[in-house]
Specification:
The protein contains eleven helices and no strands. By secondary structure, the protein is an all-alpha fold. It has one domain: Up-down Bundle (Four Helix Bundle (Hemerythrin (Met), subunit A)). The protein is globular, with a radius of gyration of 16 Å.
Length: 170
């Protein structure tokens, strides 16, 4: 789908609002409770979303994405999302849910500030415009597609997981 900045911001806002409604009001225990069969907690999903969203903040500010993800360069360049995601989750496993929630919201605010600072023309540029020396095959497509995959599309995907997890809690 071809987007412009305004459309992207609308999609992000709508999806993020729905995700916020899903997690608002959860207790610390609910945020930290492991998923079925020891799977991710709500807090783990939020950490995951925060890290990938932060990688977009770094990318748009022409900084290496692995720094935004909070993983070492070798892990990131290995390109295995499961390995990257496990490293992210492990790094934040002992953090309190309230701290995770606050950082998740602060990261989102940073993303919005970054997006608002950029023009639509800048956001039509490809990945290589922002990080020419970093791998990121986008076929020359607008960075808006990559941002969508790490924001509203990602929120929608994880909102479903989180809703199922919440429904399974005692």
């Amino acid at each position: 789908m071809s987007l412009n900045k305004s459309q992207l911001l609308d999609l992000i806002h709508h999806s993020r609002t729905e995700l916020e409604q899903t997690v608002n009001g959860l207790t610390e225990a609910q945020l930290a409770a492991p998923g079925p069969e020891g799977g991710w907690s709500v807090k783990d999903h939020l950490v995951h979303l925060m890290a990938w969203e932060n990688s977009m903040v770094y990318l748009l500010n022409r900084r290496a994405r692995h720094l935004g993800l909070g993983v070492d360069e070798a892990t990131y360049l290995g390109g295995d999302d499961d390995v990257i995601n496990a490293a992210i989750q492990a790094k934040h496993a002992d953090r309190p849910p309230a701290e995770i929630l606050a950082d998740w919201r602060a990261t989102h605010q940073q993303l919005l500030e970054t997006l608002n600072r950029l023009t639509d023309a800048e956001l039509q540029k490809p990945y290589a415009h922002f990080l020419p020396d970093e791998p990121g095959d986008d076929g020359g497509q607008s960075i808006l597609n990559r941002i969508g995959g790490n924001t509203y599309e990602h929120y929608d995907e994880h909102r479903g997981y989180i809703q199922s997890l919440i429904a399974s809690l005692p």
